[in-house]
Amino acid sequence: ENLVIATVNNGDMIRMQGLTQDFTDKTGHTVEWVTLEENVLRQRVTTDIAAKGGSFDIMTIGMYETPIWGANGWLVPLDDFSAEYDVDDILPAMRGGLSHDGTLYAAPFYGESSMIMYRTDLMEAAGLEMPTAPTWQFIREAAAAMTDRDADINGICLRGKAGWGEGGAFITVTANSFGARWFDEEWNAQFDQPEWKEALTFFTEMMSESGPTGYATNGFNENLNLFQQGKCGMWIDATVAASFVTNPNDSTVADSVGFALAPNAEGVEKRANWLWAWALAIPAGTQKEDAAKEFIEWATSKEYIELVAANEGWANVPPGARTSLYENPNYKEVPFAQMTLDSILAADPSNPTVKPVPYVGIQFAAIPEFAGIATEVSQEFSAVYAGQQTVEEALAKAQALTNDAMEAAGYR
Amino acid sequence: MATQHSRSAARLMMAPAVVLLLGWMLVPLIMTLTFSFKQYLPLRGGDLGWVGFDNYVRFVSSSAFWPSVVATLTIVGGVLIITVVLGILLAILLNQPMWGQGIVRILVIAPFFVMPTVSALVWKNMFMDPVNGLFAHLWKFFGAEPVAWLSEASMPSIVMIVSWQWLPFATLILLTAIQSLDSEQLEAAEMDGAPPIKRFGYIILPHLGRAITIVILIQTIFLLAVFAEIFVTTGGAFGTRTLTYLIYQRVLESQNVGLGSAGGVYAIILANIVAIFLMRIVGKNLDA
Amino acid sequence: MGQIKLNQVTKSFGETQVIPPLDLTIEDGEFTVFVGPSGCGKSTLLRLIAGLEDITSGHIEIDGADATNVPPAKRGLAMVFQSYALYPHMSVRKNIAFPMKMAGVPEDEQKRRIEGAAKALNLTDYLDRKPGQLSGGQRQRVAIGRSIVREPSAFLFDEPLSNLDAALRVGMRLEISELHERLKTTMIYVTHDQVEAMTMADKIVVLRAGFIEQVGSPLDLYHAPRNEFVAGFIGSPKMNLIKGPEAAKHNAATIGIRPEHTDVSMTEGMWEGRVGVAEHLGSDTFIHVHDTGLGDMITVRITGDIQVKHGDPIFLTPQLDKLHKFNDQGLRID
Amino acid sequence: MGQIKLNQVTKSFGETQVIPPLDLTIEDGEFTVFVGPSGCGKSTLLRLIAGLEDITSGHIEIDGADATNVPPAKRGLAMVFQSYALYPHMSVRKNIAFPMKMAGVPEDEQKRRIEGAAKALNLTDYLDRKPGQLSGGQRQRVAIGRSIVREPSAFLFDEPLSNLDAALRVGMRLEISELHERLKTTMIYVTHDQVEAMTMADKIVVLRAGFIEQVGSPLDLYHAPRNEFVAGFIGSPKMNLIKGPEAAKHNAATIGIRPEHTDVSMTEGMWEGRVGVAEHLGSDTFIHVHDTGLGDMITVRITGDIQVKHGDPIFLTPQLDKLHKFNDQGLRID
Amino acid sequence: MARAVTQQRKLINTALAWGIGLLIFFPILWTILTSFKTEATAIADPPVFLAFDWTLENYEAVMERSNYAKFLWNSIIIAGGSTILGIIVAVPAAWSMAFVPSKRTKDILLWMLSTKMLPAVGVLYPIYLIFINLGILDSRVGLVIVLMLMNLPIIVWMLYTYFREIPGEILEAARMDGASLKEEILYVLTPMAIPGIASTVLLNFILAWNEAFWTLNLTAANAAPLTAFIASYSSPEGLFFAKLSAASTMAIAPILILGWFSQKQLVSGLTFGAVK
Ligand SMILES: Nc1ncnc2c1ncn2[C@@H]1O[C@H](COP(=O)(O)OP(=O)(O)OP(=O)(O)O)[C@@H](O)[C@H]1O
Ligand SMILES: Nc1ncnc2c1ncn2[C@@H]1O[C@H](COP(=O)(O)OP(=O)(O)OP(=O)(O)O)[C@@H](O)[C@H]1O
Ligand SMILES: [Mg+2]
Ligand SMILES: [Mg+2]
C-alpha cells in the first residue's frame, strides 16, 4: 500500500525520508511524503483532521496535539504494538505526554527538552565556570561578561520570535522558572501576577544587555545559525540542537561547546526546560491503518535507531524517545547524551509550575485554545522585545486577550 | 448590433460564467454566514449550536480588531502609493529611447513572476536578516548599526516587500498607458511653452488617470488578501496583523471557526466599503 | 514679424536623409502651403521649422535671427496639429488658456483674449465643454483658438482638416482663409490635398521625396507646371497625360491636357473613344472616355449637363493653346 | 433577383424612434444611394435591410418574399462596411473565400470565383497578403471581392469610401460605378457625401431624421429639389438660399440660386457686394461675396479664372430661369 | 510621430534605466547566485558576488529531498488547466459583454470582480468541507476548479476589454457572410483576439502558478504544486540560505523563463482597456 505521511521539515525527519527504502524493502509498502514547515504543517493537519479530510495516513504531530486529538477520538490508539517493539522502552515522560487516559495515541519519533549550550572557550576567557545547574542570575552575569559587540559576540541568544511554539514556548518555561503560571485553577489568566512581570522584565533586560540585534524575530533556526557561526556565548534551546552545534561540518565552534541544565530563578524549584516530542499518529478512519501501524513501528523502533547509527553515526540518531538509547554504550560517548537525558527527566508535564495549574504541559497548556491564545500573547511579548511597548502594556494586553478567549471558549 | 437573436444568445453565453461565480460566491458565503452565528469549534466537536451575534460582538470588541483594520489599510494604502508613484516614474523612464529597452523591461517585470512565499522568504532571510542579511552587511559596511527590519520597521518592511512584487504590474500598465499618449499632445504643450515638469503635471498625469484607477482597483483586490508575506515574515507580530491575518489566527490557530467566520463577514464588509469607494472612481473612469 | 528662411537645411533619421539640402524663404504675412504625396517630408519640414525636430545641418532664420538652436516654445510660432492635440481633460477654456498660463499672462488679459478668440471662432457657447463633447470642426477651431491667443509670428498647420468630412472641410477651409485675411499673419499649411492647396495658398511649395519640385502661386502651378509631377498633382480631375505618337506630333515626349480644356462632341473631333462612366454632378459632368488609342483613359469635364450613356461613341478635341508639353525628363517645354 | 421593399418599417432604440414609419421600394438592378446628414438614420436603415438589427414594426420583402424575420446570412445580401471589416488574421484569399466556406461551396468552385473576383478587382497579386499589408483602396477592393463571390441579390455599402483620401476616393467611386455597370446587381449605397450620391446613383434617397425627404434621380434632385433641405444638401458648392424682401419679389418665402447659375460682373448687375475669399482652382473660381444685403454670404462659381481681390466690389446676376422658389414651409413652388 | 533624440540623452536614459532595472532585479539575481554557493559562502561577510566556487550541491540536496518533477508537473497542470478552463468559460461571457452590451454589463463585471474580495481564509472551512464531500480534496481537478473560479473575474475582464477594441463590424461581416455564432467566435473573434487571449492566458497562468493559499491547503501528496514544495524549505535546521535559494530558484525559474519569453504579449495585452 501507499502511505501518505505529513511531516515536518526538520533534520531527523528528512533523514527518515532518505531511509524509507528500508521500510519498503521490508514490508512492500510505499511511502509518499508531504513535508512542510512546522507552522504550515500544524495548520494543515489540524484542518484536515478536524474536517475529517482524510488526506493523510500518518501525521507528524507533537505533544500538544496528541492528548487533545486523542480525547476527541480522532486518532487510532496505539495499544497493540508487537512485543519486539517494546513499548515500555519509551521514556515515561514522553509516553505520558503522548497519551490520553493512559492510552498511547502517537509514537515518539524523537523527544527533546531544553538545556544550556555554551561556549567553553568564551566562558573561560570571561573567567567564569558554568555550574551544572546554574541560576538565571548567573546566566545574566555570564552573558554580560561574554558579550563583545565589536567582535560580534552576543553573550546569550534566546528565542524572541512570535508564535506559541517559538518565543512563546521559551518565555513560558522562563516564567515557570520564576514561579509564574498561565492559569490559576479556575482558568483565570495570571499575567497580572508579579511573577510574570519579573520574568518578562528579567528576560527583556538581559537580552538588551547581551542579546543579538533583532532577537525579537529570532527563533530556533536563527539562533542555531548564530551559534554555529560563533556569534553566541550561550544558547538555551532544544536538546536536539546539541547534535548540530557539535557537528564540525556545519558548526565553526563544534569543539568548544559545553552543556548545562536550563536555569531557574534563585529559590524557585522549577527549571526553565520544556518537554516536547515529534510523534507519529494515525488519524481515525484511515483505510490503511495496518500499514500505517507497520510504518510507525518501523520508524520509532530500536532497529531504526540502529539503522541511522549505521548510516550516519550515533550522534545523528533521533534522541529522547527511548530509555534503551541512553543505556547504549555507543551512545553514551556522545557528549550531550547525558545532559539531554537529565533535562528530559527534569521535566514534568503534569506538574509544570510551582503553583498548581488545571492543565497538562510545560511550555503549553494542552487545551485546544492554547495555540491561538499563546501565539497572540507571544506577539505582544515580541513587541516588547522590539521596543514597541512596555512590559506592563504587554502583560495587560495578554491578560485581557487570554481571558477574553477563554471566555469565548466557555471556560469561564 | 443587437437583434433579438443575438441578445438571447448573449444571455446564454453569459450563463456559465455567471452561474459558476454565483456558486463560488454564494455557497461559501452562506456557509460562512451560518458558521458566524454558531459556536463552531472543530477541536471541541464542531458545531456547538447557535449563539446569535456573539461572535460578531466578540470579534469587534477584541483589542486586535481595530489595529488589524488599520494595518490592512496601511498595507493597501502604502503599497498603492509606492507602486503608483514609482510606477509612473519608471514608466516614464522606460518610455524614453534607450539601448536594451527590452532587457531592462524584463528586469523590471521579473518580480511579478516570483511567488509571494518565495519573495517573502528571500527578503526576510537574505536581505532583512539583522545578522546575515545583505542589508545588515551593507549597514555594517557603512558603520551603522544593522536594523532589525522585521521587528523594528515591520510595517515599512512588509510594505516594501509587497511593493516590490507589485511594482512591475503597476509599471507595465502605466507604461502601456503612457505609450498610448498621443505624442502630438506633448508637442503641442511644448509649443505652448510648457517645460517638462508642467508637461508632466498638465498632460501626462491626467492622461494616466484611467490607468492609475485600474492599477488601484486590481491591486486593491489582491492587496486586501495579502497573506503569505505576513505569514512568512512576522507571523502577524509587530503590528502587522491584518484583518485577513486575524481571521487566519481565529480560524486556524485558535480553531474557532465561528469567530473567524464573523471576522470573514467583517472582512467582506470592509472589502466592499473599499470596493464601493473604488468603484465610484473607477466606474466613472471605465465608462469613457 | 514672421519671415522664415531655411538655409541649406537637411534632415536625416539615422542613415536615411529625408530632407536633402533645401532653401526656402517664406515672407511675412504669406500663406504658404506645403503639398505633396504622403511620406514626402512635409510634416518633417514643418516640424523642423517648429523646432520639434533638430536640424541635421543648415540654418533656420526667423525674422532675420538665427533660430536653429532655439527651443520650440521660444520661436514664437504656433502649431495646429492634425489630431488637434487638444488636452482632453481640460475644458475648451482651459485649453485655450494653457499657452497663456504657461507664459504667465495675467488672468484678466487671458480672459480677454479667450473671449476674443472664442467670438472670432464661434466657440463662445462651448467654452465649458471638454473636447470629447465637441464635433470635429469645433475641435479644430479650439486648436486654432489655442494658437491665436499666443499671438504668434507665424502659424503652422499640419493637415488640420484631414480628419474632417468633406462638407466640413470646405467650411473650415474658408474659415482659415478668412482668418488669414483678418490676421495677416504668416501661415504655413501642410496638406496632401491639392484642392486645399489651390484654394488657400498665396504660395504653394510642391514637395516630392524631400525635394522642392516647384514653388509658386496656385495659378502659376496650374498654368505652368514645371514638370509632369506637378502637372499631375495640381488640378482636379487630374490632367490627362498622353505619351507616344500623339505626343510626338507636338514635338514632346509627353503632352498634357486638363479635363476642362477638352471640347466634346458626339459627332466629330480629334480623338474618338467610348464613354465609360459618366458622372453627373448637375453643375458639371465628368466623362471618362475609354478606347481612344491614347493609352490610358481620358477624363473630360463638361460644364452643365450632357446626356451620354455607357458605351456611346464620343469625340474629343483638346484646346491646343492649353496643351502642356514635357520632354523626356518630364520637364516642361515652353 | 434583387428587389427590396420596405413596408411601414420603423425602428426605435429604447424610447427614441430613429426611423418613423417608412415605405420604400428599391428595384432590381438599381443603384440606390441613401444620403443625408450624420445621424439621420442611413446606417440604421441599411442594417435593418441587412438584418443586423431587428425591425420594431413593419415588413421587409426581398424579391417578393417576406424577409422580416430571416437572419442576415439567409437574406442573400452582401454588405461592405465603412471600416472594410476584413478579417485581419486571414490572407486576402481566405477573406474572400470565407463566405463561400460558410456556405459550403466546393473547393474548386471557390477557387474559380476567387480568381474571377481577384481579376475583376485587380487583386491577383495580393491574394496571399494579409489585410494589414494592403493600402486603403486595396482593402476596400478586398471587401468588395468578399461580397461579390457570394453572388448576392443585392450589395449594401455603408460609407465604403469615407476612410480613403480624396484622390483615392475618386478612383474607387469610379470602380464601384463600373462594377455596377458590369454586374447590374441591385446596390444600396450609404453616404453623407452628396458628390458621391450624385455621381453614382440611379436613384437617390435623401433622409433627414429618419424621414425620406425626396426620392429621385440625381438630376431630378439637382434641378427640382422638393424642399429647402434637399436644395441645400444637393450640389456643391451649396445653393445660396435667400429670404426676405428679395424672395418676396419672386412671390416666395425663400429663393435659391446655385453658385454656378449666377453671372458675375465687376461693373454692373442685380446685386452688389464685396469679395470675401476667392478660391482659385485653376479650372474654376469660387467667390464668396459679402455685404450683398441679402443676408448670408453668397457663393458664386466662375468657370476658368478671374482676377479678384479681397474687398473688391462685385456685381451678381442670377439666371432667373434657374431660380428655385420655396414657400414658408420650405416646400418647392413651381 | 516619435521625436528623434540626441545620443547623449539616450546614454543617460540607458544608464539610469539599467541601474534601476538591475536594482529591482537584484533580489532575484542574488537568489540565483546564492543557490550556487556553499552555505558558508552564502552568509559570508563581506558578501561575495561572483568570485566564489560555484557548486551544484544545493540543487543536488534539493533534488534528493523532494520529487521536484512531480511538483513541477502539478504546477503546470493546475495553472495551465485552470487557465484554459477559465478561458473556455470566459470567452463566451466576454463576447456577450463586449458585443451585446446592456445596461447591466458594467454591474455584472464589477460584481464579478467583487467576488475576488471574499477573504480566502474566511471560507477555508466551507470549501474544505465541500471538497471532502465531493471527494476532490488533494486532486488536481479540485485545484483547477478553484483557481479557475478565483481567476475567472480577471479573465473575463481582460477578455472583455480586449474584445471591446475589436470592431463589431467585423463580427457583423461574418454574420452577413453566413457564419453561425459558433463559427463567428471560432473563426473570426478568437483568432483576432489571439494577442489578447495570449496575454490573458499568461497573466492568469502566473497568478495561478503563484497562488499559495488554496494550493497549499487543499493538497497533500497527489496534487501539491511548487508552492507546497517551497513550503518545506522555509526553515530547515542549520544554515540554509543556499538551499533555500536553490529551492526558490527552482520554484520560480519555469515561470520566470516563460514570462521572459512572452513578455511582449504580456505587456501588449495588459492594457485592461485602461489605456486607450
Ligand atoms: N522619427 C522618424 N524616424 C525615422 N523616419 C521618419 C521619422 N519621421 C518621419 N520619418 C520618415 O520621413 C519621411 C517623411 O515623413 P513625413 O511625416 O514628413 O511625411 P509627410 O509628407 O508628412 O507624409 P504624410 O502626408 O503621410 O503626413 C517618411 O519616409 C517617414 O517614414
Ligand atoms: N444602438 C443604438 N442605440 C441607440 N441609438 C442608436 C443606436 N444606433 C444608432 N442610434 C441612433 O440612431 C440615429 C441614427 O444613427 P445612424 O448610425 O443610422 O446614423 P447615420 O445616418 O448612419 O449617421 P452617420 O452618417 O454618422 O453614419 C442616431 O441618432 C444614433 O444616435
Ligand atoms: Mg505628415
Ligand atoms: Mg452611419
Automatic annotation (TrEMBL), chain B:
Location of the ABC transmembrane type-1 domain: 69-278
Keywords per UniProt: Cell membrane, Membrane, Transmembrane, Transmembrane helix, Transport
Topology of this chain in the membrane: Multi-pass membrane protein
Family statement: Belongs to the binding-protein-dependent transport system permease family.
Compartments reported by the entry: Cell membrane
InterPro entries tied to this protein: ABC_transporter_permease (IPR051393), MetI-like (IPR000515), MetI-like_sf (IPR035906)
TM spans (from-to): 12-37, 65-94, 106-123, 208-238, 258-282
Coiled-coil ranges (or none): none
Protein known as: Sugar ABC transporter, permease protein, putative
Pfam family name, one: BPD_transp_1
Coarse class of the protein's main subcellular location: membrane
GO cellular component: plasma membrane
GO biological process, one term: transmembrane transport
UniProtKB/TrEMBL annotation, chains C, D:
Pfam family, one: ABC_tran
Signal peptide positions on this chain: none
Transport found in the keyword field: yes
Entry-linked PROSITE patterns: ABC_TRANSPORTER_1, ABC_TRANSPORTER_2
Superkingdom: Bacteria
Keyword Nucleotide-binding part of the UniProt annotation: yes
Record-linked InterPro entries: AAA+_ATPase, ABC_transporter-like_ATP-bd, ABC_transporter-like_CS, ABC_transpr_MalK-like, ABC_transpr_MalK/UgpC-like, Mo/tungstate-bd_C_term_dom, NA-bd_OB-fold, P-loop_NTPase
Family, as annotated: Belongs to the ABC transporter superfamily.
Entry-linked NCBIfam families: PRK11650.1
PANTHER family: MALTODEXTRIN IMPORT ATP-BINDING PROTEIN MSMX, MALTOSE_MALTODEXTRIN IMPORT ATP-BINDING PROTEIN MALK
Protein name according to UniProt: Sugar transport ATP-binding transport protein, putative
Species assigned in the record: Roseobacter denitrificans (strain ATCC 33942 / OCh 114) (Erythrobacter sp. (strain OCh 114))
From TrEMBL, chain E:
Membrane topology reported for the UniProt record: Multi-pass membrane protein
Segments passing through the bilayer: 12-33, 71-96, 108-131, 143-163, 184-207, 213-233, 240-261
Cellular component terms (Gene Ontology): plasma membrane
Gene3D superfamilies in alphabetical order: MetI-like (1.10.3720.10)
Keyword list, A-Z: Cell membrane, Membrane, Transmembrane, Transmembrane helix, Transport
Location relative to the cell: Cell membrane
Pfam families: BPD_transp_1
GO biological process, alphabetically ordered: transmembrane transport
The keyword Cell membrane belongs to this UniProt entry's keyword annotation: yes
ABC transmembrane type-1 domain mapped to chain residues: 72-262
Source organism superkingdom: Bacteria
Family stated for the protein in its record: Belongs to the binding-protein-dependent transport system permease family.
Alphabetical list of PANTHER family matching this protein: INNER MEMBRANE ABC TRANSPORTER PERMEASE PROTEIN YCJP, MALTOSE TRANSPORT SYSTEM PERMEASE-RELATED
The protein's name: Sugar ABC transporter, permease protein, putative
Lineage: Bacteria, Pseudomonadati, Pseudomonadota, Alphaproteobacteria, Rhodobacterales
